[in-house]
Amino acid sequence: MAAIRDAYTMAINSLTLLRRMTSRARLRHMQALIALDDLRSMSRAAEAMDMTQPAMSQLVAELEQLLETTLFLRHSRGVTPTRAATDLLPVARRIISATEEGAELIASHNRRDGGLVRIGVSIAAESGLLHGALPSFARRHPDIQVQIEPLLGQSLDASFTSDAFDIIACRKRQVVPADWEFVTCLPDSLEVICAPSHPLAGQRSVTDADLQNATWLANHVATVARQHFDAFTSAAGWRIHSEVQIISRVPAVILPLLASGGLLSLLPQSIVKPWCDHGRLVSLATPLSFPLPDVGFYWRPLEVGNASRLLSNELKLSGRTNAPGPTPATASPSAR
Fold it and tell me: Which of 39, 77, 120, 224 gets the most CB atoms within 10 Å of its CB?
């Protein structure tokens, strides 16, 4: 009988605590519990939650009173969670995580139903695709907000596994989740690029010796341009006599160096297109030219709203009207 009575008392206590938690507990209490466990300091936890230390102490006191237990032991070095706090922490983290997921879902629905497009963009798509599409899109749809985030390396890979973007503009990739569809906008290729004032830009033909004796701007080791350049020169037995070791994947760094004259670099046409369109750079006809995967965008057409559809149409139009074509400054090199 005593065991039954004890079990009944525990059940009543659990029910009482549940009623208290559902009626009086707040998300702020759960956040305070997590912050104190992570930082083990009232002052640091209060700072992390953008509140005063007395307000943090009040939050903890409210929760301890609600649960009728001590959650943290105070001492000169900070605070230490009790067994009760340790048991409650996984629940608190699940509550906060679920709340964050809910907020992201609602924000996602609002984006699809409203005038907001979130687009992730690779370097190639930024220069080759968005550069031509965004000015006309802004004129036609001034009320649609377009939020653009650059993607590179692992961040590009991870973008397909989250709900952070409505459109991901990049090259066509070998493997993506099945629900993402690719729309081709423009072809691309690696080309030897230089300033119009470069000595080779004025020649009728460029020889292998010309290219080996030129000064090259080295490519980043992680780029397909570097990989192709190394493979080609090794197979051809070329010896490059001079390289400038300013290495970057940022077009704003690379392109002004080339435009200043005197350097060659092997780069995707998509990246240099705006500069070639304005006559600040030209491409040379050389055997180093190499086709690349098409540039376009991925999206999930059944899940996006009207704003994303309007932007996708603009990207398609930009690809058709602004596809990078060869802008050779010379004739083809002599046959070997």
Answer: 120
